[in-house]
Write a structure and sequence with these properties.
By secondary structure, this protein is an all-alpha fold. It is built from eight helices and no strands.
Length: about 160
């Protein structure tokens, strides 16, 4: 039961983390080779970043970790029980969990979304054209390897719009 709680909380955390990275896309769990390639590609992109850009990403990562921890500590026993309930589907858990959020928790999530969006926009403004092109290329190749995935092209157009 604790394992499921950890998995569910981890899933929520991962969703927040991926939402904060403008060029990150979730990778299929079934293909460890692609994950390895994805990590290598991400590392190559990081090598092309300036120290200022790397620092921005590091600060965003620290902010996300802090926010996640604050949110986790704000969970009630009822909310934790919902997340650990093995009899509910993921959609049912999400719906029930959302219904139990306090105004403070909702505000915390809204504030976090706004802060992460501001971080993303500030980061994108620092990108050079060649860095944007490299990220677009990565998104295109990734969306090509995921059949029918429309989310990859959406991120590419956002990155290219700035």
């Amino acid at each position: 039961m604790k394992t499921l709680r950890i998995k569910v909380l981890s899933a929520l955390i991962i969703m927040l983390l991926f939402a904060t990275v403008g060029f990150a896309q979730d990778t299929p769990q079934e293909e460890p080779v692609q994950t390895r390639t994805e990590t290598q590609t991400r590392e190559r992109l990081r090598q092309n970043l300036t120290e200022e850009q790397k620092q921005m990403l590091q600060e965003r990562k620290q902010d996300a970790t802090q926010t996640r921890n604050q949110f986790k500590t704000s969970l009630t026993e009822e909310q934790k029980a919902i997340l650990c309930n093995e009899d509910m589907t993921r959609a049912e858990k999400r719906k029930a969990f959302k219904e139990t959020l306090s105004l403070e928790q909702k505000e915390m999530l809204r504030t976090n979304r706004q802060a992460m969006k501001a971080h993303r926009e500030a980061f994108r403004e620092t990108l050079t054209d060649s860095q944007k092109d490299a990220m677009k290329k990565r998104v295109r190749s990734k969306s090509g390897s995921q059949s029918g995935s429309g989310s990859g092209s959406g991120s590419g157009s956002k990155a290219g719009g700035n």
